[in-house]
Amino acid sequence: MLRKTRISIRPATDAGTGLQRDSQGIDTQEVPMSITKDFRYEVGVAWEGDRMTSVTSPDKPELTVATPPEFKNGVPGVWSPEDLLVASVASCYAVTLVAVAERRDLPLHDLHVSGTGHLTKRDDGRFGFVAIELTATIKTDEPALDAIQRTARYAERACLVTMALDVPVHIEVVVQPVTAAHPVVA
Hints:
The protein has 186 residues and is an alpha+beta fold. It is built from 3 helices and 10 strands, in the order E-E-E-E-E-E-H-E-E-H-H-E-E. It starts with a strand and ends with a strand.
């Protein structure tokens, strides 16, 4: 005889009750679930006059952010929102790659990620980002070259900032053995 079981999931803080039969004769069981991760990232932006702002976030250094010099009344030598977007993508990729390499116990001796954001008229007629290009140069031990290459490709798909964008992110990965001078390009 085939017996149906209905499982309901509830927070892990409750104790399990085991198998019980409901009014329809179906066995039911409550099982604990893992708590979903839910994070909040708070920032504040204050206008400082002209095209300058200050950006704050709890327990972090303040940033000065301004209109980029390419735009009218832009300010040279100051971080722009466009710089920060490209930096967010590049740094997210870097820390994601490092975290995955650590979980996989892979040797990572050096990592440098450079990025370029391309702004132009988009297909919808508006001016904005059309692509972000990253180049990741990674140094590892010779036996780990292939594994680091796979890890680098996985980090492309796992970067949370990249996943939040509606702009394509293209990543060139260059993996080099620590002792050799000739890179492997993917």
